[in-house]
Design goal:
Layout lengths: L1 H6 L17 H5 L3 H12 L11 H10 L3 H24 L5 H13 L30 H16 L1 H7 L2 H20 L14 H15 L5 H20 L11 H4 L3 H14 L11 H12 L1 E3 L2 E2 L14 H9 L3 H12 L12 H15 L12 E3 L4 E5 L3 E6 L2 E2 L11 E5 L2 E4 L30 E5 L2 E3 L4 E5 L1 E6 L4 E7 L9 E11 L3 E10 L3 E8 L3 E3 L4 E3 L3 E6 L1 E9 L4 H4 L6 E8 L3 E6 L1
Antiparallel strand pairs: 1-2, 3-4, 4-5, 5-7, 6-11, 7-8, 9-10, 9-16, 12-13, 13-14, 14-15, 15-22, 16-21, 17-18, 18-19, 19-22, 20-21
Helix pairs in contact: 3-5, 5-6, 5-7, 7-9, 7-10, 10-11, 10-13, 15-16, 15-17
Main location: other
Pfam families: Hepar_II_III_C
GO cellular component, one term: cell envelope
């Protein structure tokens, strides 16, 4: 779709000018005074900033210990500081921030690698080298994003930097050519796509930042066209991974790196081609990709989550708002504006990507002018392409994950259920801990959060040996049926194929949402493994009584068909998990007495 439009372009590419440079004072001066003050104050935080040192030992730590964060935190802080300084200078325009900006550009251009230690390999899913090969740059997510950061910084302050020294822009252009443009055109990185391999958010996230870097430069016409023509092929490979329903199998958190990066790719292509790609916004698939983020929203900060996605997936802002605007989705615009108004960090001060922050600044007034009380129509939906079922009423939000165990960022969670009541988590999906070397390795499923026994799923036992779900496309839900009606929604599936043991002949799970009343889950098991134990994960502490289980102050759980119920407390010590769960979580282990188990949630 995208490639075909690119092939039909018969006009020269236009100059890149999505937002004003600092020297174009009218639009910067016209920003609201309170906004300008906040931007300047944030830049002042980094005056005389001591950019953190990045050593070879820091880089090697990932290979040696598996720790990603200590290197990444310092690398990201360099970019966040530079972004804040650049925007403050664009607003104030007195030269006060320029020395610290130049220091930032220097230290970033001095880095031996722009990519992360965790991505330090040439071939997908191969062991990482302990140190970067400076003769063969790797373009990963953050090499591409770093390129966009220094590119947009130079674009915004081109005249101001030139007045100090023309060598600054030449330094940036040299680094971009050697680290990004030459390897992009001469090599094939896995995320570029080939029409056969499975793609994910890397494809479109990297492509967006390559386009930002290339279009903001004064490259030769032929080179810019070559980059564009390679990029549009990657965009089509990315889109081929999506069903027409627009569901992101990586979840709401990764939508920010997937659907929204697709939007920015289109935004940038239209910017330099006199809107030659504007017809894409009318595509049903593109419209559905944009709507996805509303459809999986629960309430306030919470989203339906499966796999690595957190239930607290982040506030919406300018990119969602603009995506809604381009696709004619007034509801998405209202949702994004309301979320932006309620955000603790509306200016995305912790965001690496300078272009996103620029978009926020120049969309701020439009988003702030929207009615804060706009109502969002969250609808019932079945996402067939991934197997996500969502049912709602005035109190409950029920989500069921069918599909298979081959999603991007996969957990072994086929058939798992999450429930929210009155906007709060009742039956939960834990999410993922801080990334480490193990997270994306052959040992991934040794991590507890990835395992089916820490999702709302059964575990089978052969003596003392646990039989858990397995990863892979063949481990799937089968015989899936669903039904929506004004009074009752239901989904049913057989989960036996998600487990690698033929002695599990069938495990039929049915979830029924009786609107305005209750949710009923029935499990029926057939097989020769005699013991089946259902795990249920809770945020609020479940208290077991003779008649029912109280779930904090949220509701009651009635269990029929159980021979025993045990409760475990699971401490939340990991920083990434702590962004969603502010206290310990709980697991109930419900042993099936015979073949049938029924849960009623009221």
């Amino acid at each position: 779709m995208i490639t075909e439009l690119a092939n039909n372009i018969n006009k020269p590419l236009l100059n890149f000018h999505p937002y004003p440079q600092a020297s174009e004072r009218d639009q910067w001066e016209a920003l609201p005074e309170d906004l300008k003050e906040r931007i300047i104050q944030n830049g002042e935080v980094y005056l005389d900033f001591d950019y953190p040192s990045l050593t070879a030992a820091d880089f090697m730590e990932f290979t040696r210990t598996g720790n990603r964060n200590r290197y990444e935190d310092k690398q990201f802080l360099r970019r966040i500081a530079l972004d804040s300084l650049v925007l403050a200078e664009c607003v104030e325009h007195k030269g006060r921030f320029l020395d610290d900006i130049i220091n930032g550009l220097y230290v970033i251009c001095e880095e031996n690698a722009w990519h992360l230690p965790a991505h330090n390999s040439y071939i997908r899913d191969t062991p990482q080298f302990i140190l970067p090969d400076v003769t063969r740059p790797v373009i990963d997510l953050f090499a591409a994003e770093t390129a966009s950061v220094v590119s947009i910084a130079e674009y915004l302050l081109r005249q101001e930097l030139f007045d100090i020294s023309p060598f600054l822009s030449e330094m940036i252009n040299k680094n971009l050519k050697e680290r990004i443009f030459t390897p992009y055109l001469q090599e094939h990185f896995w995320w570029m796509g080939d029409g056969f391999s499975q793609m994910n958010n890397w494809t479109i996230w990297c492509t967006q930042n390559i386009l930002l870097s290339a279009f903001s430069r004064d490259l030769p016409k032929e080179e810019k066209e070559s980059i564009m023509n390679k990029a549009v092929k990657s965009m089509d490979y990315f889109l081929s991974e999506y069903g027409d329903d627009g569901c992101c199998d990586e979840g709401a958190q990764y939508f920010r790196h997937a659907g929204l990066c697709l939007f920015n790719c289109l935004f940038l292509l239209n910017e330099i081609t006199d809107h030659a790609f504007s017809s894409v916004y009318k595509s049903v698939k593109i419209k559905n990709i944009a709507s996805y983020i509303i459809n999986v929203h629960v309430d306030d900060v919470y989203y339906v989550n499966f796999a690595d996605c957190s239930p607290v997936a982040g506030r919406c802002g300018a990119r969602e708002f603009l995506f809604g605007k381009m696709t004619g989705n007034q509801e998405l615009m209202a949702f994004a504006a309301s979320d932006y108004q309620n955000s603790d960090d509306p200016l995305t001060l912790k965001e690496n990507n300078l272009f996103y922050r620029l978009q926020t600044i120049f969309t701020h007034s439009e988003m702030m002018s929207w009615d804060k009380t706009s109502n969002i129509n969250h609808k019932d939906i079945w996402y067939e392409s991934v197997g996500i079922f969502i049912s709602r009423d005035d109190h409950f939000c029920l989500a069921v994950k069918a599909g298979d165990n081959n999603d991007s960022h996969n957990h072994n969670d086929t058939g798992s259920i999450t429930i929210y009541k009155d906007g709060l988590p009742l039956l939960i999906d834990v999410g993922v801990e801080t990334y480490s070397k193990k997270t994306f390795s052959p040992d991934r499923y040794e991590i507890w959060t990835m395992q089916s026994c820490y999702h709302n799923l059964p575990t089978f036992f052969n003596g003392d040996i646990q039989i858990l779900q397995k990863d892979g496309e063949e481990y799937m839900a089968k015989q899936i049926t669903h039904q929506f009606s004004p009074t009752e929604n239901r989904i049913s599936m057989d989960l036996s194929s998600a487990y690698p043991d033929e002695r599990i002949q069938s495990y039929l799970r049915t979830a029924i949402h009786k609107k305005g009343n209750e949710i009923v889950i029935t499990d029926h098991y057939e097989g020769s493994l005699r013991k089946a134990v259902l795990s249920l994960m809770f945020y609020e502490e479940p208290k077991v009584t003779e008649d029912f289980i109280s779930i904090g102050n949220l509701g009651k759980l009635f269990v029929t068909g159980s021979s025993s119920i045990q409760k475990e407390k699971i401490p939340i010590m990991d920083k990434r998990l702590q962004t969603a769960w502010k206290h310990d979580i709980y697991r109930l282990l419900i042993t099936m007495e015979h073949q049938d188990l029924m849960l009623k949630i009221q």
